[in-house]
């Protein structure tokens, strides 16, 4: 089995004044070694909470894993303690975020931050670490690394900061890189460069990527497979080609219709009217029913299952069910 990361029926709940919010409610997927899996959805879909759950970074929030398992190389991370998780975050699973300013320390020079990461993970001497830091900055395409090591994060551009973050994340040779909207804050040209960089570096080391994004353009460019999330659930999963060519779930179809034209920036997905349901007002059946133009009676009453609708292509929609029912009837009538 080539699986490096397996999330099984993950449930992540937050407690608030108005009760329990099920931010992630039964999400499952697998990532193979060296594979790039995209998780796509609007904000509020639970995609970032999924990544924080995997990294064991919920402790500063009111969030808690309420059920399910997260297997990394066969070990269940939901049962790991903070010490074990810290080791895993340093050596096995690394993460980069949308805004590197939040993960770089503003009061330390770039060189020092990189060296500390290297010394911590690779047990290098200070001198070796400086040399390695320069090599790493060169590897992420920073042209004057000897100068950059003496600068503070705020002295760098957004693109440069993200390059530094990537070099830090890759420093320990992680087997999985979780990237949460890594290029969302960058302009289009820099975005393409950063994606290229991530692709090349991870290919060299056969690192798997879990790429969290709201941007299907990024998915098309980077991913092998994709999971579409809506209201804390996975609603569709397949290889990238099939998702674009033959989306099965009405939500995915809506997302595809809303891909912006090249060079046009949109803040919201316009072509799906309505919003992600708020937790206190979750529909009974399919969570997408209030926005779905195909909603039927059953959709309001009962939630469809996440089912394989064609080879390795999964969808959570009554329409697919009906299609397969009809197909069964058809097959039956010809026998
Ligand atoms: Fe639309 Fe019904 Fe499918 Fe939900 S189950 S996406 S409401 S057709
Ligand atoms: Mg997010």
UniProtKB/TrEMBL annotation:
Membrane topology note: Peripheral membrane protein
Keywords: ATP-binding, Cell membrane, Membrane, Nucleotide-binding, Transport
Full protein name: ABC transporter ATP-binding protein
Family affiliation: Belongs to the ABC transporter superfamily.
Annotated SUPFAM superfamilies: P-loop containing nucleoside triphosphate hydrolases
Subcellular location: Cell membrane
An MF annotation (GO) of this entry: ATP binding
ABC transporter domain sequence ranges: 5-256
């Amino acid at each position: 089995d080539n699986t490096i990361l397996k999330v099984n029926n993950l449930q992540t709940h937050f407690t608030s004044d108005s009760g329990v919010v099920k931010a992630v409610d039964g999400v499952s997927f697998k990532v193979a070694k060296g594979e790039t899996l995209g998780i796509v959805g609007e904000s509020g879909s639970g995609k970032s909470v999924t990544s924080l759950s995997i990294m064991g970074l919920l402790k500063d929030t009111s969030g808690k894993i309420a059920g399910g398992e997260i297997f990394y190389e066969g070990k269940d991370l939901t049962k790991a303690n903070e010490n074990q998780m810290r080791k895993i975050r340093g050596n096995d699973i690394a993460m980069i975020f949308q805004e590197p300013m939040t993960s770089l320390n503003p009061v330390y020079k770039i060189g020092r931050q990189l060296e500390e990461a290297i010394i911590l993970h690779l047990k290098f001497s200070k001198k070796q670490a400086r040399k390695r830091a320069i090599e790493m900055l060169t590897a992420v395409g920073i042209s004057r690394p000897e100068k950059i090591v003496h600068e503070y994060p705020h002295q760098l551009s957004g693109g440069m900061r993200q390059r530094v973050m990537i070099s830090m994340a890759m420093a320990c040779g992680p087997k999985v890189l979780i990237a949460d909207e890594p290029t969302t804050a960058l302009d289009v040209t820099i975005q393409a460069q950063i994606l290229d960089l991530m692709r090349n570096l991870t290919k060299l080391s056969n690192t798997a990527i879990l790429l969290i994004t709201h941007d299907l353009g990024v998915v098309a460019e980077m991913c092998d497979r994709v999971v579409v999330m809506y209201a804390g659930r996975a609603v569709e999963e397949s290889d990238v080609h099939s998702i674009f060519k033959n989306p099965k779930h009405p939500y995915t179809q809506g997302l595809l219709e809303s891909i912006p034209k090249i060079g046009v920036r949109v803040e919201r997905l316009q072509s799906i009217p309505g919003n992600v349901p708020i937790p206190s007002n979750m529909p009974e059946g399919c969570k997408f029913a209030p926005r779905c133009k195909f909603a039927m009676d059953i959709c309001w009453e009962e939630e469809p299952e996440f089912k394989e609708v064609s080879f390795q292509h999964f969808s959570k929609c009554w329409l697919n069910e009906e299609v397969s029912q009809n197909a069964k009837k058809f097959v039956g009538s010809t026998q």
